[in-house]
């Protein structure tokens, strides 16, 4: 069954009704899926509540649905992971956002580091880029039936991102020169981990002084193994390890 996200205000529970007014969603339902009155779809409020709803009115500007079932989404992991991603070149960020959304990421914050090549010209350019990235997260969340849409933040400087580490129960920074501590060791020595941050550098990785700065802020350098991973791979690997160790990958 196809899933769509709507704003909480579009759900009127006391009347058992849901309204879809997003034009892209309406076109997709009518023109691509060719759904009609009486068909059912999944609706999610983006805050971990989901509904089975039946189409009762379908027009070009608005779709009205009747709530048949309601429940808590079962697709969200028990940990909230934020990825601070050094902005890579070309379309690599698109892939990072899509795949991390599938794996269960909660937030992605683009990050400017010493070795970041991509330069966003001004705030308007930043906002336009982030708007496109958010759409990628939205579509990926629909496809993999997430209960929450990961939020893509505005780009931050490395120093500002490091300052955010205090908000997390655990913050890690994969580094090719770190050979002693891996994510498994770190997660086994920490308890009650709910909010975790991963810091990933762009192409070329982090400068040594950035690792020193991160360590002083309590961010733990870790190894992801003996091989050098690309920036678009490192985040997947770190997130997968965390989801397997603390989340919901791999079952029991």
Structure explained in plain terms:
The protein folds into 2 domains: 3-72, Ribosomal Protein L25, Chain P (Beta Barrel), CATH 2.40.240; 80-246, 3-Layer(aba) Sandwich (Alpha/beta knot), CATH 3.40.1280. The protein is 32% helix and 26% strand. The chain contains 7 helices and 13 strands. The chain has helices at residues 23-32, 92-103, 123-143, 158-163, 183-189, 208-216, 231-246; strands spanning 3-5, 11-12, 17-20, 40-44, 49-58, 63-72, 80-86, 107-112, 151-152, 156-157, 170-174, 195-200, 220-222. The strands form 2 sheets. Strands 7, 8, 9, 10, 11, 12 and 13 form a 7-stranded parallel beta sheet that branches. It has a 6-stranded mixed beta sheet with strand order 1-4-5-6-3-2. Strand 7 (80-86), helix 2 (92-103) and strand 8 (107-112) form a beta-alpha-beta unit. The two termini are 26 Å apart. The model has no long low-confidence stretch (mean pLDDT 94). Its EC number is 2.1.1.193.
């Amino acid at each position: 069954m196809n899933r769509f996200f709507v704003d909480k205000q579009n759900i009127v529970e006391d009347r058992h009704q849901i309204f879809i007014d997003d034009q892209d969603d309406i076109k997709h339902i009518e023109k691509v899926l060719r759904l009609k009155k009486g068909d059912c779809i999944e609706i999610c409020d983006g805050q971990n509540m989901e509904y089975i709803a039946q189409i009762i009115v379908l027009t070009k500007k608005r779709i009205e649905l009747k709530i048949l079932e309601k429940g808590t989404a079962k697709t969200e992991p028990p940990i909230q992971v934020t990825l601070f991603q050094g902005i890579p070149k070309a379309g690599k960020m698109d892939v990072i956002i899509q795949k991390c959304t599938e794996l269960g990421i909660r937030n992605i914050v683009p990050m400017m580091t010493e070795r970041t090549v991509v330069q966003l010209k001004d705030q308007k350019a930043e906002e336009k880029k982030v708007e496109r990235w958010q759409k990628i997260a939205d579509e990926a969340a629909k496809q993999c039936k997430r209960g929450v849409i990961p939020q893509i933040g505005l780009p931050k400087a490395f120093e500002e991102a490091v300052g955010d580490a205090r908000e997390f129960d655990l913050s890690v920074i994969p580094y090719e020169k770190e050979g002693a501590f891996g994510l498994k060791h770190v997660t086994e020595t920490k308890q009650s981990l709910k909010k975790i941050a991963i810091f990933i550098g762009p192409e070329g990785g982090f400068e040594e002084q950035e690792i020193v700065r991160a360590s002083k802020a309590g961010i733990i350098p870790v190894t992801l193994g003996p091989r050098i991973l690309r920036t678009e791979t490192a985040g997947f690997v770190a997130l997968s390890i965390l989801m397997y160790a603390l989340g919901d990958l791999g079952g029991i």
